[in-house]
Amino acid sequence: MDKKEYDVTKYDRPSLTVDIVLFSIKNNCLNILLIKRKEVPFKDFWALPGGFVKINESLEDAAKRELIEETNIKDVYLEQLYTFGNLNRDPRTRVITVSYFALMSSKDLGNIKIKPSTDASEVQWFDTFNLPKLAFDHKNIVEYGIKRLRWKLEYTTIGFKLLPENFTLTELQMIYEIAFHKKFDKRNFRKKILSLNLIEETKEKTKDVSHRPAKLYSFKKKIGDIIEII
Amino acid sequence: MDKKEYDVTKYDRPSLTVDIVLFSIKNNCLNILLIKRKEVPFKDFWALPGGFVKINESLEDAAKRELIEETNIKDVYLEQLYTFGNLNRDPRTRVITVSYFALMSSKDLGNIKIKPSTDASEVQWFDTFNLPKLAFDHKNIVEYGIKRLRWKLEYTTIGFKLLPENFTLTELQMIYEIAFHKKFDKRNFRKKILSLNLIEETKEKTKDVSHRPAKLYSFKKKIGDIIEII
DNA sequence: CCAAAAGTGTTATGCTTACACCCATGC
DNA sequence: GCATGGGTGTAAGCATAACACTTTTGG
């Protein structure tokens, strides 16, 4: 097990990065956070936040660090998405990127101030279905992220990660409608969600609305934060 | 876009490997192919086939190459599984591995002769649910592979990749029973499979069996080789 | 004729879908 | 009182699950 017995440096190694597809709901749209690149390659192109993995940090730690460094955002839900390793995805040299899928509660949209950094001249939310031209192969990564989001919404309880702690059933339904680009029947949606027995009424209602106030629900977090169906 | 404008070598880079979880059905069991390591670390431990990614090959090409080099197996179904990057998963140095999920038709079990190589002193199939102690974090990778297999069997038509071109409905059912460790009702299974309209009768039947011969079916490969439900 | 696996239908149950009106609030 | 979104039930159709006997072959 002596490190000297095996010279791994004899291999010409690819570089390794992480990139994060961070979704949130903003203005009734599914949004993605992008940064504007300060440096070549793809200078002044919009790109996913991300960067090189350091030798002494895990992949997930790298994703968290890059998100903080480049956008000032932390404490989001994060899971690995896919690893992209085509030969010419970066014009500089061989770069493999491990992409991450992230969700931010719409509650935090107000609390966290996104801000640019050394690597990014701007940071901005974009409508997922109306993105600018992206650097590298980031369009592929985003598409992969949308697929994952839809799948996870359908088969897991991940949707709650996009909502504040207390939410109305209409807000929850909206997330599904935004992600799937289609309308669901209100009665059937409610029946289905309530039958899953994953959320409970709070004693609160929405305030200061010029119509009948809605019951606020919260997610029953007994087992884990997210109940994985798979 | 000049490669010289950006010195990526200033980053201390992790090493990158691929590892392959190759499943096949053998003796009515779900089997995984393992190699016995010739070198430290984990000398003489069983491990997943795999190795370092070369600078000029894609991740998938690396997986294919390693599978051929280490086991003499080629032309299997291959898809990316997950990227494992914990800090101490390799005692030598920082190594990140992109794992691949592979399926081999039981037809090929007879045709392809597995053989050891420079890196492996032995190559052998093992019952997935009765594996020896594995090198590195390969146990985690195998578990992840089993999850993916079950999921894919449930939601896609990937099961056909484990069968020869023509197969009986009983053989198909067996794959599901082996992977899920449970029995399914014969009539309901057949009804379900046939209603999906994905397979068709051939004119052939099983030969030389001391009981009623079974119809052989084949997969209708119209759209693509695998119909992804997701 | 016996052993062994192939093949085949019906019923009950639960889930999904389609669909329309009254309720509570602010202005 | 009116505009706005919140809240509710029922019936039809469809998919799933449970269940047992007959058929075809080799020996």
How would you describe this protein?
2 copies of one chain form a homodimer. Chain A has 230 residues and is an alpha+beta fold. Chain A folds into 2 domains: 3-154, Alpha-Beta Complex (Nucleoside Triphosphate Pyrophosphohydrolase), CATH 3.90.79.10; 157-219, Arc Repressor Mutant, subunit A (Orthogonal Bundle), CATH 1.10.10.10. Helix content of chain A is 26%, strand content 28%. The first copy, chain A, is built from 5 helices and 10 strands; from the N terminus they run ββββαββαβαβααββ. In chain A, strands 1, 2, 3, 4, 5, 6 and 7 form a 7-stranded mixed β-sheet that branches. A 3-stranded antiparallel β-sheet of chain A has the order 8-10-9. The longest helix of chain A is centred in the middle third of the chain and has 18 residues, at 138-155. The interface between A and B is large, with 39 and 40 residues.
Topology:
The structure is a homodimer of 230-residue chains.
Chain A: E1 15-26, E2 29-37, E3 46-47, E4 50-52, H1 59-71, E5 77-84, E6 95-103, H2 106-111, E7 120-127, H3 138-155, E8 166-167, H4 169-180, H5 186-195, E9 199-205, E10 215-219
Parallel strand pairs in A: 1-6
Antiparallel strand pairs in A: 1-2, 1-4, 2-3, 2-7, 5-6, 8-10, 9-10
Chain A binds a DNA duplex (27 and 27 nucleotides) through residues 168-170, 185-188, 190-192, 195, 206, 208-215.
